[in-house]
What we know:
By secondary structure, the protein is an alpha+beta fold. The protein is 36% helix and 28% strand. It binds flavin-adenine dinucleotide.
Amino acid sequence: MAARTILVVGAGPVGAVAALACARRGHHVTLLEAQERIDDSPRASTTQPPTLEILAELGLIDEYIRVGLVARTFQFWDRPTRRLIAEFDFGRLADETAYPYVVQTEQHKLANLCVARLKGKVHFGVSVTGVSQDENQVRVETNRETFTADYVIGADGGRSTVRKSLGIEFEGYTWPERFLVITTKFDFGAALGCCARNYMAGREEWTNLFKVAGDDLKGRWRAVYNTREDESDEEALSDVAVRARLARVFVPENERDYLHLNLYKVHQRVAKQFRKERVFLCGDAAHVNNPIGGLGLNSGIHEAWHLAQLLTEEKELDSYERIRRPLNIKYVQEQTVANKKRLEEGRLEELREIAADPKRHKAFLMRASLIESARDAIRN
Ligand SMILES: Cc1cc2nc3c(=O)[nH]c(=O)nc-3n(C[C@H](O)[C@H](O)[C@H](O)COP(=O)(O)OP(=O)(O)OC[C@H]3O[C@@H](n4cnc5c(N)ncnc54)[C@H](O)[C@@H]3O)c2cc1C
């Protein structure tokens, strides 16, 4: 194998994993990040079993688990009546994976773990402004200098400059509502008897409750809500509206203080192409989706791992787009849209039946964990 010069744009979790995976395969890697440090806003935390297998191959798994929380189960609740409807148990996947659980570790911790192992290869404060290429190399223009590389991995997020420089369309749509994340120290587990990952359905408003470790490892909860379509950002972020939302997930009045608020636009979009000659798109640069089910980042990490392997073999580079694009549509876009619909419609009875039937329970988990997607990738 010839060592190649590979430039990765964006030190989010996907770019950081792509850079580390390529460096460990002996390539000359440079990772460029526009910000001065890793972004630590509260986004992904749920890490699915096939992703844990990749992190194990990268030598990160022990530390990753140490700074997160292991969660074997997830639950569906009917929020208005405060009833637990169904529980799914990853323990049923024990004969399918070495990691029959998810790990709740905030995504900035993953990026930081990778960056710590990429000493001297990461440049912060370097913003890519354009990408051009000929048959031999890629030129990457930045706010500082011009870089050249054999291959470029664009992992620069949903607004990807790399994707735009290549003129690749980002097909799909943006949902009219936004998602609000309230971070609090209130212990929903103790108060409601719920587990670390909970989906609470409701017709006008649903809430998802997740426990994460926090930087101090003392534990935090994230409560994620849909906003009303006609609700302004200011209204959604107002103290009155936030406290009212906490009241609707049964937080007592004297415990409605919160640590952070984040409001996100939500999209379902897939790039028309994942590759143009020597440049590849990975993670949110290639696709974005609503976060219900915890799939977007996971699929991005699977792509980064797959791509590092293909670039090392330098064969069948076309297979990257041929395999990964349909996989994202089938296992991430379709599943997250269905997950959102289920919560909005409060249609949980079917889940109770699935959870009660061992065969259907396992089949549901095989898809929800992305194990089925990972197996499909190998078959192709
Ligand atoms: C509320 C919420 C919860 C979520 N929960 C989950 C979950 O549990 N599980 C899951 O799988 N997914 C989840 N997601 C999705 C997940 O957060 C994203 O899929 C993930 O951030 C994608 O990582 P990325 O590295 O591709 O992009 P990003 O995290 O967006 O990183 C891109 C990086 O590129 C940098 N950059 C941008 N432009 C340039 C440039 N021109 N030059 C250099 N650098 C640049 C940015 O500064 C950034 O650091 C969630 C999302 C949200 C909003």
